[in-house]
Amino acid sequence: MPLKSIQANCPAWLCEGEKGKLIKAVGKGIHQMTRRLYYEDQYLKSFEAVVVDLLEFPDTLGLVLDKTAFYPEGGGQPADTGVIEARKFQFKVSWVKEEGEDVIHLGSMEGKISPGDIVRGVIDWDRRYKLMRMHTAAHLLETAVEKVVGSARVWGSGINVDHARLDFKARISSEQLPEIEEEINKLVKMDVPVIARFVDKVEAEEIMRKYGFELGREYLQLEKLRLVEVEGIRVDPCGGTHVSRTGEIGEVKLLGRKSKGAGITRIRFTVVP
Ligand SMILES: [Zn+2]
How far is the CA of 14 from the centre of ligand 1 (A)? Predict the structure, then answer.
């Protein structure tokens, strides 16, 4: 697809307004869909790929490859960082963005590169693995909160390396936090498999129903969607990267709660070590 700008949730320092406007594309600007290696193997740390395009934005460069293990920002999970290199070439990846079917690595480079060249990408694994643990913990927190306070819809979420937050449409008191923390750590210690896969809509509805959930209206248009199933505990439509067993999360620590008004309570948490 042709590229004109980078938008949406890209950080303001990189992408806001004029900064997101494409100045130049070295390639033809028409690409095949980027193969998403992070969906084939969420534990892939490095990979080889072919350069498809090099894009120039006012304050940053964009590198498009035929495939990538770099996760683009989405679903509350921030983008991966890392490096993409070749002989006499290094591209520091500071953000990754989806634009239609392309995954665009944003950052700065040293050296030269052309479409057709082979490069090696290495993601900052410590950072990504922490994000995976945080993301799976976020899903489990919903179950733990429901257990303690009854029904509690998630209103919003944000996952970072050091801390994450979930906003619940529920009143949750600070007295309930220790109990919620105990519940979530029980689920972690059960060390059950976490299975992420693409399924068609009919199958998705069946699996969701098995867990007592309904497929949200926003998914009904889709033919296929990705489900993240924590075996025997819960299932969610989710595009993020997850650990493959809950035990990998380690230990969840709740950092606090805050009322956001209109019956919304924010819970902040982290995972240790
Ligand atoms: Zn998720």
Answer: 25
The secondary element (H helix, E strand) that includes residue 125 is: helix 125-149
pLDDT of residue 163: 94
| DSSP helix/strand/coil, 261 | strand
CA of 139 to the centre of ligand 1 (A): 6
127 C-alpha to center of ligand 1: Å? 17
Every domain of the chain and the residues it spans: 12-123, 128-272
Q: Between vectors from CA 246 to CA 240 and to CA 250, what angle results, nearest 5°?
A: 105
Three-state secondary structure call for residue 51: strand
3-state SS, residue 178: helix
Q: How far is the CA of 192 from the centre of ligand 1 (A)?
A: 17
**CATH 1.20.81.30 at 12-123, yes or no:** no
User: Are the folds of 12-123 and 128-272 the same?
Assistant: no
pLDDT tens for each residue of 15-25: 666 777 777 77
pLDDT for 22: 79
CA of 148 to the centre of ligand 1 (A): 21
Q: Which CATH class for the 128-272 domain?
A: alpha beta
Highest averaged pLDDT of the listed ranges 29-38, 130-139, 148-157: 130-139
Taking the centre of ligand 1 as the mean of its atom positions, its distance from the CA of residue 135, in whole angstroms, is 6
CA 188-165-125 angle, to 5 degrees, is 65
